[in-house]
Amino acid sequence: MLALTFLHAVAAALLPAAVNAACGKVIIDNDWSGSSSYTPLLELLGANCTILGITSTVANVYAYQGARHILRFLEIAGIDYIPVYVGANEPLINTVERSAAWQAVFGAFTWDGAFSPDNATLDAQGGDPTGNNPLELTNIPEGVPTMKWQNQSAVDFMIEMAHQYPGQVEIVAAGAMTTVALAIKQDPYFASNIKRISIQGGYVDVNLKQTDPTPANQTFPNDDVYADFNFFIDPEAAKIVVNAPFQETVIAGQVSIPYLVTPAIFNETISMVTPITQNLSTYWASSIGTPLWDEIAAGVIAYPEIVTKSRVVYMDVDVAYDSIFYGRTFVAVAPFQPVNSRNVTFVEQINFSSFLSSFIPALQGNYATRRV
To answer: How far apart are CA 91 and CA 258, in angstroms?
Structure first.
């Protein structure tokens, strides 16, 4: 009987998740690392989403420095009508020292983001401050913005929008989950008022196969190439967000691994000369060869029709600091899910050609005259 129940649960979990075609009101939460991190924002603008606001959170860089990058881009692109809010500048519990101690025992990460050792030489050359310098602001290659971030915190802004537009707001969460987690803890109604959150993160390796009765499942044959840094830098925040009662939680991190920024994509994008593509021609070249992580997480909301296979499973995050799996996600189907875990829509496959047909024109668009 138990085996039959399990198979029925798995069969139900394999049904494709329903997605809405229209793009509505969106908050995009990111670490805005580097000088070309704004491409997910352009996708959403190209899909005629209403961008309620941009929030900056910690991950690859600290939140205040990331806010400077996105503010300067908004000036360059003439998109100064979108407000920017600064969120969590540091993880809930994790620190540079705590992360280093864990890695000394269980092995080093391939990427440390804001926790990377500080390099004063790179700082002086326009690199982003790292290490124990969360409040340091350095000059950035594209120039220091004159536009300012809002006085209201990103956490309060998110909560306000969730109450002002209940059931209408979608969030793209492409940095650490810290800012979103703080909103969840501050307001017990926040998550249930959010229509959908699309998360860049949540790698599950071969564990996903445990929810698939097909022995030949090879959805992610090479999924350990990249570390799930958005969860690793703040595992406690990731657990809070994954366990929260959002109307729909979409996990769109792992599916992006095979899809890289190629020279062909880069060259086609900058073949049309605009202020945005001129900026991309200078700064996006360094992204060639890396996955379109944030872009696909945003694409799930901007172009939901690109999702060709998804699975509804329970997900949770390991927050045992003394575990080699600290910060890693795992999935299950009923009745085997952990207590307090919730269902998520795990995106397994996308139509990449369809994605590019919308993505590249979005990067070439002119949004300077648009107002919300």
So the answer is: 29
345 closest CA partner among 224, 249, 275, 219: 249
Q: In terms of Cα–Cα distance, which of 155, 159, 239, 236 is closest to 193?
A: 159
Distance CA 372, CA 52 (A): 8
Distances (CA, A) of 253 to 216, 228, 231, 298, 325: 22, 8, 11, 10, 18
361 near 35, Cβ under 8 Å?
no
Q: Which residues contact 191 (CB under 8 A, 6 or more apart)?
A: 184, 244, 245, 246
Q: What mean pLDDT is reported for the chain?
A: 89
Nearest to 238 by CA among 164, 325, 307: 325
CATH architecture of 2-363: Alpha-Beta Complex (3.90)
The length of the chain is 372
What is the reported pTM?
0.90
In the three-class reduction of DSSP (H, G, I as helix; E, B as strand; rest coil), residue 307 is classed as strand
Tell me the helix, strand and coil percentages in the chain, rounded to 5. 40, 15, 45
Q: Where are the domains of the chain?
A: 2-363
Helix (H, G, I), strand (E, B), or coil: what is residue 317? strand
Q: Which stretches in the chain have pLDDT values below 70?
A: 1-21, 206, 209-210, 212-227, 370-372
- How many CA atoms does the CB half-sphere of 225 hold within 13 Å? 13
